[in-house]
Every structure is written in structure tokens, then in C-alpha cells.
Amino acid sequence: MEYWKWLEMVVLALIMLEGGWRTEGCLEEERLALFQLKPFFPSIDSRIDGSRLEYYLYPIEEKETSSDCCEWEKVECSSITGRATHLFLNLTYIVTYDDLVYDDLVYSEYRRIGNNKYWYLNTSLFLPFEELQSLFLSGNSIVGFVDNQGLKRLSKLKNVEILDLSHHNYIGNNSSQLNDFMSLKSLRLQDCGLVGSIDMREFNSFINLKELHLGSNQIKSLGFSFYDKEPLWLNKLEVLGLSDNLLNSSVFSSLAPLSNLKSLHLSR
User: Fold this and answer.
1) According to the UniProt entry, where is the signal peptide (predicted)?
2) 181 falls within a domain
3) CA-to-CA distance for 234 and 267, rounded, in angstroms?
4) DSSP-assigned letters across all residues of the chain
5) How many domains does the chain have?
6) Residue 232: inside a domain, yes or no?
7) CA-CA-CA-CA torsion sign (164, 168, 174, 176)
8) Residue 173 lies in a domain
9) 12 within some domain
10) Domain harbouring 69, CATH code
11) CA distances from residue 123 to 49, 152, 229, 236 in whole angstroms, order as listed
12) What gap in Å lies between CA 86 and CA 186, rounded to an integer?
């Protein structure tokens, strides 16, 4: 009899490891948290067919919304725990074709949210997602944070490896609040109001960072020299995006300490 109990446990464990089982739907606390986010990201519960180009240019055809938030297009969950692991909230406000400007497609997409153009984010609304690994928030007309609910609060999510905050100018004045994100492997800060000299040592706390994207800002220099006394610790950085900035050839001396850098983007 003991043998059969042991065999049953082994079989169940194998099924779970293969992703063949998970809890029934998403966790209730996370589903409620997603609905709290819905006023700010209206299409968070959508189930949309079609390519991303169709998403921008043509009216959206949505399937019937499921009560299981793990089936939503903007949410991806663990097949074992049912917890949300990825939130794809880029450009979540849906506009009609008449709202788009052909030559400025992306920007026109994220300049409007409902009847309001701009709004403030309460980052504590993301704290229930304890297993979150990726958070994409680019292009949603966020202009700041609710008091005491800024980027530092997000650092409580200890499993986040990918964070996309692109196309939000307010980030330039708040980037220092990101220092506690030690789990990050990819950070996207394109078009985030970074101006002048940026000291790369501000990112030293990101000991696991492999990709750093700083394109489409107004960075003039990286403000770091190979001869500076305080070292640069981005030992794992492999990809650095600096396209569409105001840099000159002096940038190369600042990059000398990045011994594992494999890809550098400097186009203008």
C-alpha cells in the first residue's frame, strides 16, 4: 500500500513539472488587483485576435472576457501556481483609427487615456503579484506617482527581471528610485527624460543586469571615466542601447569598464 501512495505522489509531481496542472484559474487576490488596475489600463482584461499592426490600425475585435485572468492577452501566469508572472501593459489604451497620426503612430497611441491625457500611477497596486517576472508599462501617459507610491515600492517585487518604463518623461527625475531592483536583467528607459550627463555608476546596484536601453533621450555623456576611483560594477551587462542621444566619440572611453559588453547601439 505504501508503494502505491509513493507512486501516486511521484506521478502528481511529474505532471506538475510538465505544466499539465495548475490551480483553477488565476488567484482571486490577483484577479481583484487586476480589476483595480483596469481604470488605468482599460484593455487589461482583453482577449484580442490579430497582429500588432492590426491592433494599431483597425477596430479591435475582442473575444468574450474570461473570468480566468490567466487567459487574458495582457497576462501570463505560472502553469503550476496560477500566479501572474508577466504583465504586458504597453499601450493598453485602445484608440480608433481616427485618433492615429500616420507619421507619429506610436506617440499618438499613448497620449490619450479615456477622457484624460495624463495620470499618476499608484505602484502599490502591483504588489499582490509576488511572482511577477516581467512588467511592461511603456507608453501610457503616466506623468508621475501617487504620493509615497513611486518606483521604490515596485522594488518589493523581488522576482522582476524585465522592467519596461519607456516613453514616460517623468522617469528622468525618479531613476534613482530603481536602485533596489537587484533582480533586474533587462531595464528599458527609452524616451524617459534623461538629460545631460548620466553617471553609469547609478546602475551599479543592478548586479544581474544584462540589457540596459537608454535610447531616445538627451544624454550628452555617461559621466564616467575608466580612471575614476569608484568602479563600475555592471559586470554582466551585454547589451547597451544609446541610440538617438547627443553623445560624441568620448563615449567610448566611458564604456571601457564594461568587459562583457557584446552589443552597443549608437545610431542617430
Assistant:
1) 1-22
2) yes
3) 22
4) -HHHHHHHHHHHHHHHHTT----SSS-HHHHHHHHHHTTTSTTTT--B-S-HHHHHHS---BPPPPS-GGGSTTEEE-TTT--EEEEE-TT-S---GGG--GGGHHHHHHS-BTTBS-EEE-GGGGTT-TT--EEE--SS-EEEESTT-SHHHHTT-TT--EEE--S-GGGGGTGGGGTT-TT-SEEE-TTS--EEE--GGGGTT-TT--EEE--SSEEEE----TT-SSPP--TT--EEE--SS---TTHHHHTTT-TT--EEE---
5) 1
6) no
7) positive
8) yes
9) no
10) 3.80.10.10
11) 29, 9, 36, 28
12) 14
pTM (2 d.p.): 0.78
Place of cell 482571486: 28
Contacts within 8 Å (CB) and 24+ apart, 199-205: 199/223, 199/224, 200/224, 200/232, 200/234, 200/254, 201/230, 201/232, 201/233, 202/175, 202/176, 203/234, 204/232, 204/233, 204/234, 205/179, 205/180, 205/181
Domain range for 180 is 26-193
Closest CA to 247 of 209, 265, 267, 221: 221
**Among all chains, which residue has been given the C-alpha cell 575608466?**
226
